[in-house]
Amino acid sequence: MIDKLVAQIENAIENDLYLVALCSALTLPDICGKAEYPKKGVNDRYKTWYKNYVYDKFEHNKKHINDVYYQMPDLTEEIVYDLRCSILHSGDPNLNKEPPPVDKFNLILNRDKTNSTIAKSTLRMVFPAQAKPFTERGIKVDIYNLCNLLCKAAISYYNSNKNKFTFINYTIEEL
């Protein structure tokens, strides 16, 4: 089942259906997380699976601004879960968390697949009307590369753990 879903994600990318591909790819940690951690809730199993099987592929960084180090959001399990929830459910990137880890997702299409950037964090001063300035935390997410990474991790996990996917009880039949 995972292999068929990944094939369709790759097909969506080849046909420039990037949001369809991203939405589908963001479900892979849900499915694999259910296989690996069947007793955990959705939030915990998604984040735990992502952290254990995907997160170590990303670089982490800190930015120095006005003598304060701000931990910049990379594609941590929290950020990817928020992206998943934002795209698939609520439309809100920070899900009312205080402080929000991300104020804005910038989805980018990097057509040069040989020179990829998985994620790039940005800080920007925002000056709302009649209010103190605040720092907006944004993150650029390369759709192609995030989809590719999630697909590779899911296929690798699935090929090593097919026996854990017994909960999948549907098929697609052509009539």
Can you give a write-up of this model?
- With 175 residues, the chain is an alpha+beta fold.
- It contains 6 helices and 5 strands.
- The longest helix is centred in the last third of the chain and has 18 residues, at 143-160.
- It is globular and about 45 Å long.
User: What is the tally of beta strands?
Assistant: 5
What is the string of helix and strand elements? HHHHEEHEEEH
* Sheet with the most strands: spatial strand order: 3-5-4
Low-confidence stretches: 59-72, 123-127
Span from first to last CA?
19 Å
**Class from secondary-structure proportions:** alpha+beta
What would the average pLDDT be, to the nearest integer? 76
As a percent range, the share of helical residues equals 40-55%
Number of helices: 6
Shape: globular
Largest sheet: 3 strands, mixed
Q: What's the gyration radius in Å? A: 18 Å
Task: Describe this protein with a few key phrases.
single chain, 175 residues, alpha+beta, 3-stranded mixed beta sheet, two-stranded antiparallel ribbon, 42% helix, 17% strand
